[in-house]
Amino acid sequence: MRKEFKTVIDTLSEHIIGKPHQLKLAVTCLLAKGHLLIEDLPGMGKTTLSHALAHVFALSYSRIQFTSDLLPADMLGVNIFDQQSHEFRFHPGPVFNELVLADEVNRASPKTQSALLEAMEEHQVSVDGTTYSLPSPFFVVATQNPSHQSGTYPLPESQLDRFLMRISLGYPSWEAEKAMLQQPQGRDKTPLSSCISVESLLEHQQAVADLRCSDAVLTYVLNLVNQSREESGYPQPLSPRASRALLGAAKAWAYIHDRDYVIPEDVQAVFAAVAEHRLRGHQQEQFEESTLSQRLLNSVDPLAA
Amino acid sequence: MMAPSLPVAGNRDSLLISLFFLVLSLSLFGQIHLWVLLLCICAAVVRICLYSGLYNHMPGRRMVNLLALLAGVALVTTSNNVDFLRVMVNLLLMASSLKLMLLSKRRDFFQLFICGIFLLACGFIFYQSLGRTLFCAAMFIVLLFILFSAHNPSAGFAFRRNKSAILMLQALPIALMLFVFMPRIPPLWKMPEGKSTETGLTDKITPGDIANLAQSEDLAFSATFTTALPAQQSRYWRAMTLEYFDGKSWSASETRLYAQVQLQQMRREFYPAVSGEALRYEVVTEPTQKTWLYALDTAVPDSAASGQALWQGWNYQLSALQPVYSRFAYQVASYPQTQRVSSNLALDKAINTQVPERGNPQTREWVNSLRQQHPWDNDFAVALMDYFADEGFEYTLTPPAMLVDPVDRFMFDAKVGFCAHYASAMSYAFRLAGIPARVVSGYQGGTPINDNTINVYQYDAHAWVEALIDGYWRTFDPTTVVAPSRILEGFEHAARFSNEMQGEHPLNGINQWQVFEYFRILNARMDYLWNRWVLGFDNNDQTDVFKRLLGDISTLKMSILSFGLFALTALLLTLYFVPSWRRKAISKHQKRYLTTIESIEKQFNIRRDNRSPRQFYEHYKAIFPPRLSQALLALTQEYEAIEYGGHSQGVEKINQRCRLVYQALRDTYPRSRC
């Protein structure tokens, strides 16, 4: 593993105990310039994770608590009439930050959700006809409660597709939870030190994008997405956006592991996080023991031409 | 690896394929065991329940295994008197039904697909009509559609249609070529003999048999004339000459058969002396499983091929040398004006004056008195015919049963019957009077379907009398004087005006409309063409095609042609598969790596199962000895570097690592053959 990212993961692990794989995925997502969706029950550390991420990468951070009465303007910003200069001045909203935590994104009305998603996709917002660029890097971490909880508007499939990854933290192990309980209470904790500057983060992102990817891996990615399209039993086959996301995430994973080329294991490591929410959509029910993405992985040979 | 499974409930394709099997098994009704059909229906019901969500539990594997065991036992016990092919068809259908109940994986689906195609083809063992062929073609297309929809559920109708069309078009040239040129080598190309025959005529006439026969609308044979058609009333198609009478039934004479065998061994053949004008025609018979053939009197083979395949009996009966298992065509010339001389007067007389020693006393007495009145054979014959004409005999297809002294009962009590009764009674009377006589069974009439082709159906079956008078065999048909319309206008006509047939005969009523008549004839014509050119396409036709292509036939040319054909077929198939082969081409180092892995798999009895190289190593490294583990790790790293990292050292390095792996394998297991 690359030294600087090992430090990042270690630092993060101090706050989110016992979830190194999820932390690695989150960092991967950041490196691949994608947005992250964290889906879990309340109180599992979703907010803590995003907060920690912002600190570690020294990103400007804002948190938007999504509620059913949140309006797009609350998030994007408004034009306010300045009494002194007698003109309208744009007052940027919380979305103008490098890392935005959209907390409980599925509690907001679809209108607000779509405003955020537009910002995510275009990296810019338009207010009253004027377009404002969002900072770079721009990284959205959205959290959501499982959709069967009351008071939620489930994200439609088209919007789920915009998130590079969806992860869920899950309950900690016995030891991890014990370690957590032994730590000083919540906000009194020692603040996280930043490990990587914004400039070097941008450089890393560029390096990930330039990473070499052989034909064999491309074939593997194509075989995977085609399998989901041709095989029955996948209600929502993977889109070309999904295949691009898969490749990007695999590159970032390879980069974190200090390799200058992608191997099938990289694809497999990120596959569940990248593909599961796209394959399943908002049908959260899991009848089978294995998830759809696992089934898909099992049915494709990485060495097949 | 976990095989991907089809979601059971709500899967349309598994429902469709079970409906396909249901229709297929229903179309084989009568040819398969009833319980196999029931099993198939059960499978379809299970599928329908699963599809509609009425019931959500698949039948368990254990239950189906038990069912399979029971079905196997049932098949063995019910197949005692059934021929082998039929048993096999039953077995295949039974297995498919059981598989249908278990259908959950894609592999099952493809197995069923193959079985479906096979069973469709098996259907042709039982039915070969044009309609059946169209049905099978339609079913095949449906099956293809189901296959494509299973393969690619999201694809639309147009995609499936195009794919199916492409597949069919690709297969068509090969199928045509195989049909036209594939040599029909007899042991391969012959259907095994069925234990039950379903043809019309039997080699024994017991008055009563032909009534059932008359109900059958099946085609017996068709004849295509190159000369003008003979008139309806003179179309007596001889099939068998029956010379032995046991008081109830007429059958072929043992003495005659024995004599025939003797003569055959002595290579003495019978060439009837023919005279007068000839009727030349080709007959295409339906399979009868028997050797008898049909011809108008007096017939001789009219082509070299027919001369070899046919045998002229000494009783003017034409037979095939082999039983007719498939459609058979032969050319004959008939000379109706020929006087049929007795081929062997002493033998004919001895065989044809035989009667049972007792029985039918009334007839015996009556014949004696009649014979005294008419000492001349001719007069006696006329008197017999007059008796039938004047004594109020009636033609009926449903005569009462005549069990004891049947001739007495018929001649003096019942006085109703059909051709077999009349022919039997008249021959018997001739024999009692000392005049050699025999019953000829065959067909009378037939339906012209165009200017030169006559179709003869099973309901045209008939029997008449042949008596030896003044050294010549003369034909008498007592049915003509009783029911002239039967002979003049054909069976159909007679049946329609016979009261008891009302509402019974399927043809009844329909013919009154011209349109139906038109379609019936059209159908008969299509059927004829189909029989002649597709089903009847045999070695002779094949030879004709060869001749047209090659001029004369020599062994060298034939072998070149057959070799060329095989080569061409192989080439066509190759052309179809080359694109997919090319896409699947793998690099040298990958090949090398995979063969090495295969050796390890064999050695340790493990499987890679869609694992990537790294995963394979990680998953199994614990069970490998340290040296092999190291060598494999090195190989894996090298492979990754080349395949994914683009390092260009290539095959040499991989080869080297593979050798190390093999060495490690050999060292650990010296006796292994790697």
UniProtKB/TrEMBL annotation, chain A:
SUPFAM superfamilies assigned to the protein according to its UniProt record, in alphabetical order: P-loop containing nucleoside triphosphate hydrolases
Keywords per UniProt: ATP-binding, Nucleotide-binding
GO molecular function: ATP binding; ATP hydrolysis activity
One Pfam family this sequence matches: AAA_lid_2
Domain ChlI/MoxR AAA lid: from-to ranges: 238-290
Keyword RNA-binding attached: no
Sequence ranges assigned to domain ATPase AAA-3 in this UniProt record: 35-165
Highest rank taxon of the organism: Bacteria
PANTHER family xref list: METHANOL DEHYDROGENASE REGULATOR (PTHR42759:SF5), MOXR FAMILY PROTEIN (PTHR42759)
Family according to the record: Belongs to the MoxR family.
Name the record gives this protein: AAA family ATPase
Organism name: Alteromonas confluentis
